[in-house]
Amino acid sequence: MRDSSAHAADRGGVRMTRYIAAAAVLLATAALAGPDEVALPDGYQERFVNYLDVDRLDRNRVRKMYVSPEAHAAAQAGAPLPDGTVLIMEDHDAQIGADGAPMFGADGRLIALEPVVNIFVMETNAAWSTANETWDYAWYLPDGSPRPDASFDGCFSCHASRAERDYTFTYWTFLRDRAE
């Protein structure tokens, strides 16, 4: 008969091995993420749907959220987004007044300055296998070139917290609200 404490230790070892393996996959996946897989679509500002602007008072930023038009037409509330969906988050600095405080427009929203600060792209592709199922990420500079020092660990870990919402934050909510 096997000693139950030894058996429990073996199970713990197997569990720890699984955690280490999962962490290794996450780190390897994050290292492979980026513009090699996820392209910045040409003309996205004109062609994509700007479905939401988000004021980030904590960062004095306005984030403009875009979705590919094909995905927008096919997406259903509560369902995984269609293969090939591209979501873009475009950062703009907020206008700051002489007093150092952010300025607000007549609509009560932060006033976004026109230069783009960062462009973040996420795309789903059934052929990919990542820590976040089929989603991958890229970070671009305002001129459209890939950010050379980009790290995607934060993308994977933050979006992993929304696994039940197909790894998305604002678009899942947008679809739900649109359906109501």
Automatic annotation (TrEMBL):
Coiled-coil region list: none
One of the Pfam families matching this protein, by short name: Cytochrome_P460
Annotated signal sequence range: none
Top-level division of the source organism's lineage: Bacteria
CDD domains: cyt_P460_fam (cd20716)
Limits of the Cytochrome P460 domain: 41-170
Name of protein: Cytochrome P460 domain-containing protein
Organism: Halovulum marinum
